[in-house]
């Protein structure tokens, strides 16, 4: 499991550097992601991710719900076509805040 965490002035940037998130690492992801929920918005960069299975999706759904419960904005950026098709198929594009890039995600970030 590889996440690069970078604290910015107005948000926390999490960069996923794994190519795959599946059942072998999804629980670690869930725990790490939730541990990043502090008091500022989070942007998750998926630029390297090429595959995510249902257990990986479950980790991100849990993380997103925990963030919403704490009133923390969570946005996702740089999602590959393959991963985006999975998110569309599961209806998660209607739930998650998804942006093309960091500049777009930073607009009106609260």
Describe the structure.
The chain has 110 residues and is an alpha/beta fold. The chain has one domain (3-106): 2-Layer Sandwich (Transcription Regulator spoIIAA), CATH 3.30.750. Helices cover 37% and strands 23% of the residues. It has four helices and seven strands. The protein has helices at residues 26-35, 54-69, 81-90, 102-106, and strands spanning 3-7, 12-16, 20-21, 42-45, 51-52, 74-77, 97-99. The protein has a five-stranded mixed beta sheet. Helix 3 links the parallel strand 6 and strand 7 (97-99). It is globular. The model has no long low-confidence stretch (mean pLDDT 94).
The end-to-end span amounts to 28 Å
CATH topology grouping: Transcription Regulator spoIIAA
The second-level CATH architecture is 2-Layer Sandwich
Strand order of the largest sheet: 1-2-4-6-7
The CATH superfamily name is STAS domain
* DSSP, total strands: 7
Q: Which range does the strand content fall in? A: 15-25%
CATH class: Alpha Beta
